[in-house]
Amino acid sequence: MRIGFIGLGNMGAAMAANLLTAGHAVTAYNRSADKVTALAAQGAHPATSVAEACDAEAVVTMLANDAAVDAVTFGDNGILAALPAGATHISCSTISVELADQLAARHAEAGQRFVSAPVFGRPEAAAAAKLFVVAAGAPSVVEAMGPIFDAIGQRTFVLGEEPRAANLVKISGNFLIASVIESVGEAMALVAKAGVDKQQYLELLTSTLFDAPVYRTYGGLLARGEFTPPGFAASLGLKDVKLALSAGEALQVPLPVASLLRDRFLTLLATGGADLDWAAVGALSAWESGADHPAD
After folding, report:
1. Per-residue pLDDT tens for 126-145?
2. Which fold does the domain 2-161 belong to in CATH?
3. Phi, psi dihedrals of residue 46, rounded to the nearest 5°
4. Mean pLDDT, the chain, whole residue set
5. How far is Cα 111 from Cα 200, in angstroms, rounded to an integer?
6. Which residues form the signal peptide (predicted)?
7. Is 239 a catalytic residue?
8. pLDDT tens for each residue of 10-60
9. Which of 170, 193, 239, 242 is catalytic?
10. Are strands 88-91 and 153-158 parallel, antiparallel or unpaired?
């Protein structure tokens, strides 16, 4: 399949590389040209503009936030203007349900197709093609995009015909991950201050009732104090918690834990942790009880 790929960050570069490995023809665009050059060495065609990347059967966006997706889609010579009729925009970004609705409507008006397909997994999972894809859109379109999802992930979950459903599930999932990070961080700070070894504590947790990837991955980062380089930046963690709160407000669903997490991420960012991995929010309790700040 001829695929345009826009956004070669920690996740996107690995996803695009896996599309190449699977035999797809990939045209890649990124604001930082060095990342395009690196992917071109693996066989990708370098694009010098968003419009050039849209000369394809499908274009995948993997970008940081609503503003970035909005800019490349609706801006001058953006995806909406350049993507051929009948071609598909696959948004793998974690974006608001409101933007997902807008993307679906505007692409339909232009005779284009749209699928929301955000992914669960950190950069190491992206590199190993072990992401979990959460897709929603017209059934025939989602099915047609199956080869793309198979190339980047280990399993695809289809959540219906409304793209916004995939985005809401992704937002809710990131909220749950942040909740685990905070709670594990608090528990670890408690036992560590009493002299319990954090690695030993983590082994106990993950060998008993908490044997799940989220506990093993983020518990490990907390136990080791491993927050740089970030696999997922703390600033993006704040963004996703705010997306959860916005969705909760729109649906009239109180999310008191999300409100707490918003304040925790604001504390981390205000004290110098914006560029740390979002796991560092779980280290705030230890800092507040006398340990070093995660940014130190």
Report:
1. 999 999 999 999 999 999 99
2. Rossmann fold (3.40.50)
3. -80, 130
4. 97
5. 57
6. 1-16
7. no
8. 999 999 999 999 999 999 999 999 999 999 999 999 999 999 999 999 999
9. 170
10. unpaired
